[in-house]
Amino acid sequence: MNTIKKNRLTRLTHAIASASLIIAIGGCGSSGQDVGSALNVEQRFTGVAVDGHLARATVYLDGNNNGTRDPWEAYAFTDNDGYYSYNPLTNTNYCAESTPPSEKIYCLVNRTSLTNVIVRVDGGYDLLTGEPFIGQMSRRVDVPNTNDDIDSVVSPLTTLVTNVESAEDRTEVLNAIGITESDLDVDYMNATAQNDIDSHLLNTALKIHKSVSILSDRLNDNYEELNDEVAVLNDPSPEIYSNLAQEIIASNQNIDEVLTNTDSLVRVMDRSEEVLRDLYEVKELTLPDDLGNEQNPGELSRVVNIVSSVPAVVDRLIDPINLDINTAEAIGGARALETLVIKSVNETAVTDQSIDAAVTFFLDETRDNLVDSLTEALASNTADVSTLASNDFDGEDFDSEDEVSTASQLAEDAQAFTQIAGKSLRVMDLDLGFAPAFLRDLELELYFLGEVDGIDGSFVSCVKYIEDAHVDGTLGEGNTEGELVTGYWSMLGATDNNKESYSLLLTFEFLGSTYQAIMKAAGGTTIQGEDFEQYRFDSDGKYRIWHSPQGLVDISSLPTNNIDCESRLPSRIGR
After folding, report:
1. CATH fold of the domain at 31-154
2. What is the rounded CA–CA span in Å between residue 85 and residue 541?
3. Fewer CB within 10 Å: C terminus or N terminus of the chain?
4. Considering Cα of 61, then 114, then 169, then 178, what sign does the dihedral take?
5. CA 466 vs CA 5, 29, 43, 199: distances in Å
6. Domain residue ranges in the chain
7. Looking at the whole model, is its pTM more than 0.90?
8. What is the pLDDT of residues 246-296, one digit of tens each?
9. Please, are residues 485 and 513 in contact by the beta-carbon 8 Å criterion?
10. DSSP label at 409?
């Protein structure tokens, strides 16, 4: 891809989602190989990704185990329920010839010679929390010499044993987390025919993955240049998982003992950091300062101290022995936990005292009634985890049941997405930059199509991305004054029986690539006397607010080309 085209794609993606999204190169089930030569093979990989269930995550076959998707490796996305290739809830085969293009993106087919492969999952949105999924999950599978389907559950539990080679060590790790080999095949969010939740497996999975996510983010912050490198590990979490398993084996401790032992956590971080530093040297990048080691934990002290509190917080929010846990209790507890994770991954160099206040809040037995009120409120359709994560969890505004409940909710005037087919929405960034050489003008107009009362459909959109513009009329590189982009929409968590959602999943198709984003209603506001509806675009735990002067309105006509888009999005910076 040439530089201009790459810059154009990058800027358009930012305009669409206000964050970096996964670039999907090629098509569903694309051919490619890591080992051997192409054969007459067509194996459908089916399964589900579950932390909670992950919607619109990227699932791919990592044949060379380098922790990233190479262009030749087959990939797909998970659907709105977290499944890929086949959804047993709806009995939908996404790989069937009759499958419409909007659903083909969920089909994962291997057409190369593989005997052993790692199924990896990253990105997407956690249906349990309603937030972007942080980190990566995996499962190692043996590929039979047939065209039979290969079905797999991919979860934090399968990820922990992905790189455990010997059967003896694998058994030891499974014993340490209190599960059996068969538990790896359990979708613990739908553990029985009655869709019951397995509280023990959910509790264990959350302890592991949320701890790994916080540890991994600290390494990622220090070694972020690897994100721009091709064909190398672009997320530290696989190394954290691998070294966590090795620490369990070497120490002969159970999972709670390892995760609450700061010395063990420092060892896990130190070994993982060594791998990242080796990659820096291979890529001839300038090495940042080492974060610490067993003898001198240094900058690792803060993050391992935070993680050491995670098991107790999880036990408080998701009771591992409550066999009657219901979906609402699981959602409320998981969302409360997610506020701690978001706080931790967003912590700057200055210690955030609200993280410690949140831990104290969850674990203080005298506040049990407040915690229960909070988790009950978080289970509602109007819960807002991101806003709660910015709360300091302390003070007079957080010491009554009503106050903690209010702190976890969307603005009262936030409008749910219902019957949006036939509607259009124009959103904009109100920051217009400054003259003479740094003017900016970012706008997006979406036109939603589909059945009037549908919960999904297609859309066309016009995108304007102007940044670093000059008063003489010249634009920065890769800018567009109007680009026609198409895609698909669906309401996150909505069903035929509940056709309402405050979160909208968006799949954009542009120049042969696929992008995923999530948009959330955030209520109204008044700025300099003008009323706006606010919409939040989320990615990787970070979000940015865009504004709409009118909100959702009826479509009068559809744009058909780039020139049409330019006319619909006139300049706001005097060009």
Report:
1. Immunoglobulin-like (2.60.40)
2. 27
3. N
4. positive
5. 15, 35, 44, 49
6. 31-154, 164-347, 423-568
7. no
8. 999 999 999 999 999 999 999 999 999 999 999 999 999 999 999 999 999
9. no
10. B
